[in-house]
Structure formats: C-alpha cells, structure tokens
Design goal:
The chain has 437 residues and is mainly α. Helices cover 46% and strands 11% of the residues. It contains 19 helices and 12 strands. The N and C termini lie far apart (62 Å). GO terms for molecular function: glutamate-tRNA ligase activity.
C-alpha cells in the first residue's frame, strides 16, 4: 500500500502535492491501494476542516484515494503499542521537566557539543513531575536504509538518542504515530519530502522495537528552491497550491510541472495518465530543483492548447465554444486563465468604458466613425476579413493607422495583440455585442 500523509496544519505546499502525485503514480503503476492519512497529531496546530481542502485539491488534480483515515483514530493503538514497548523494556517513562532539559541543552551548547538525551535522567524528577512522557530507547547500532533517490544512507547510533513517542498529554508524536500506522497499513513504499530524512531512522527504530522487519522502500524528494536559491517557503506565494490555482494555472499544468521538475522525463508536456507509463523514482535528481515560473507558464499554455474549446470557454466563464477558440488565439501573449479572461473580457467590454485618454485623443473620432459603420453592416458573419475591411475603408475613407488602430481597438479592446484577421474569424459572430460603446 502507498500513502499520502499530510498534516492539516496549513495550506498545501507544492512540495506536499509533489509527494502526493509521486505516491499516487507509483500506486497506479503497482495497481496498489492508496491511503490518504490525515496526520492530526499536532493538536494545537491542526486547522478544523483542513482535510476537506486537502481532499478537494487532490480531487482537482485527479488523485483518487482508496482509503481515508485520521491518524487520531489510531491514538488508542499507538498508546497500547507504547505500553507494549515499555513492557519489553524498549521504551520507558521519562519524568524530566522542560526546565531540566532546557538547562541540559544550555550546558551542551556552552560546551560546544551536540545535545543528547541521557537515559539516566529519566527518573530524576519522578517525585515532582506527575506527567511523564514515554521515550523509545535510542539506537544501539547504526541504522541504514536505501533511499531510491539518495542512495544508501547511514545514521550513527549516537545520533539517535532516546526520543519521545508519547507526549505528556498522552498524544503520540509524529514519528511514533507515523511509524505505527505505516506498519498497521502495511505500507510498502514511502515517498515524502527531504525534510523527513532525519525522521526515517527513528521510524525504523520504532519498527525494530516491535520486531517489524518489512523492507520498506523510501524515497525522499529534494527540496524546491526559489529564485534566490533558498527553500521555497510560505513567503514565496508560488509555493502555495491554492495561490497557483487562484492565479490561473491549470491543475494539469501544475502536475506536469511538478513531475518534470528535477526529473528525467521522455518529453516535456504530458498528462498524469502518461506519467504512469514511464515514471521512475530513480530518475529524480538528488539535487534540489529551482522553481521556474516561466516554465510553468509555458506548460500552462501547452495544456490550454490540449483543452477542447468548449471546456476552455467554460473555464473562462463563457458558454460558447468559439470563446475557447478566441482564447487559443491569445496564447501567444497570455499564459494563465486570469490573463486569458482579461483579454476576452476586454473584447466584450463596452469600449467607451475602457478607452484610454491618450488613445481617445488620437483616435477617438475614428473609433466613433468606424463603430457606426460596423453597427450598420448586415450579415457580417458571412464576410471574409478582406471583404469586411474593404467595405469599411470604402465607407469611412480612413487609411493606414487611422483605420487599423481604431479597428483593432473596437474588435479587441486593446491597441495591440494577435493578427486582426485571426480575431475577426471568431469575433464576427458577436460583432454587435463587441463594438457597442
Ligand atoms: N505529516 C507529514 C508531513 O506533512 C508527513 C510525512 C510523511 O509522509 O511521513 O510532512
């Protein structure tokens, strides 16, 4: 079984979505079950109802899960297994207070050595502290695992001291709950962000404590960097999946981009279904990848081209498929749904409302003359662009830019853009609506 295990503590980051996509692709390749597990162990930071956003986004990206659980449903099992580990002397109650541990941390810092928990401290404050935590005994030997992206990784035993598995309030820690649930659900392959590499030996230690020896495949995905070469964080708006969607990037283009990023793929533009044919974790580069919004824009335009005109029209808020055709003409200069919508809305806007002062001063009279002439034409939809143009030139006597600039403005609401003859082929069906003042 594969799983995607988001925490319901904030907006979905593109790194999380990337992990979800990769897990889902592998589940499809292996024809295996895909679990969506909401990791709600951080009671204070959980956001009520966040799982609905997560489910909505995954669905939008075409990711379907077969099973769904809240990690908290398993809290009783987590506690039970912690008790079991205590009974086997693999875990123990630790009564140390925060004050005591802070002091020890401070001492380690002063002596310029890494802080390590010492098991002999466990009961020093037993008489005064009524709320002990449970710790799993640290590693007695080195822990190694094979990562499909990073290769063989080894953690020295002294790097993994006894760590908390159940907090004072009885809630399991992320590492413990995650390791137990991966065991209970028989997870075969874990794909997640690189920030979890250092958690993996702890989770393996939990498994070993319970004599669970399944050989799980791990793959830790390199972080995604911003323009400045720093890890993309909440401060980079493009790190938020919702922000990208709100800015008019298509889910299929975002998905394409996240699979392409730092990966060896047979082509640049593809769909989820196509990735399933060739995706291999081993082809993902070890090095962090830089987020390139221009590449995403390119892919967005490519996916607009793949959409049929009716679907594109609907996405832009219009019913008629010819609006989809019109939008495709604008792909030379617009990359997002919002930019396309702006172009189309300008075409249909009342021209008197959007004419700029400067343009009005230079071409205002010609706009009015042409407008009246166009509105008086009959059966425009039967005309070719050349016929339309010749009739207007003859009727108005306008020439050169005094003719073409106002005409372009009337047909598109803008003084620059695609070839007028390409636009005319579509807008001629709506001409009376478009040319109104
Ligand atoms: N809840 C963790 C996160 O959102 C999941 C890590 C994992 O996949 O094990 O980062």
């Amino acid at each position: 079984m594969l799983r995607f295990a988001p925490s319901p503590t904030g907006d979905m980051h593109i790194g999380n979505l990337r992990a979800a996509i990769f897990n889902y692709i592998i589940a499809l390749q292996k024809k295996d079950t895909f679990l969506l597990r909401i990791e709600d162990t951080d009671i204070e930071r959980n956001i009520e109802g966040k799982e609905k956003d997560i489910m909505f986004l995954l669905t939008l990206f075409g990711i379907k899960w077969d099973k769904f659980i809240f990690q908290s449903e398993n809290f009783p099992k987590h506690r039970q297994l912690a008790e079991y580990l205590i009974s086997k002397n693999k875990a123990f109650y630790c009564y140390c207070t925060k004050g005591f541990l802070d002091k020890k941390r401070e001492e380690a810092k002063e002596q310029k050595r890494a802080f390590r928990y010492d098991d002999s401290w466990a009961e020093l404050e037993k008489d005064t502290n009524k709320n002990p935590v449970i710790r799993l005994r640290g590693a007695s030997s080195d822990i190694s695992f094979k990562d499909s992206i990073k290769g063989e990784l080894t953690f020295k035993n002294d790097e993994i001291d006894s760590f908390v598995i159940i907090k004072e309030n009885g809630i399991p820690t992320y590492n413990f709950a995650c390791a137990i649930d991966d065991m209970l659900f028989d997870i075969d392959c874990i794909i997640r962000g690189e920030d979890h590499v250092s958690n993996t030996p702890k989770q393996i230690l939990v498994h070993r404590g319970l004599d669970y020896n399944k050989d799980i495949e791990f793959a830790h995905l390199p972080i995604i960097l911003n323009d400045e070469g720093k890890k993309m964080s909440k401060r980079d708006s493009a790190s938020s999946v919702q922000w990208l969607l709100d800015s008019g990037y298509l889910p299929q283009a975002i998905l394409n981009y996240l699979v392409l990023l730092g990966n060896k793929t047979p082509c640049e533009v593809f769909t989820l279904k196509e990735c399933v044919e060739w995706f291999r974790l081993e082809n993902v580069a070890k090095a962090p990848a830089k987020f390139d919004i221009n590449k995403l824009k390119f892919l967005n335009r490519e996916h607009f081209k793949l959409l049929n005109e009716q679907d594109l029209a609907v996405l832009l808020g219009y019913k008629d498929s010819s609006i989809g055709a019109l939008a495709k003409i604008y792909l030379q200069e617009a990359s997002t749904l919002n930019e396309l919508r702006d172009k189309i809305d300008r075409i249909f806007a009342k021209k008197s409302l959007i004419i700029q002062d400067e343009f009005k001063a230079e071409f205002g009279d010609e706009v009015v003359i042409l407008q009246q002439e166009i509105l008086s034409l009959e059966n425009v939809e039967k005309l070719s662009y050349d016929e339309f143009k010749d009739i207007l030139i003859k009727a108005t006597n306008l020439k050169g830019k005094k003719f073409f600039k106002p005409l372009r403005f009337l047909l598109s609401g803008s003084d620059h853009g695609p070839e007028i003859c390409d636009l005319f082929a579509v807008v001629k069906y709506y001409l009376k609506d478009i040319v109104r003042s």
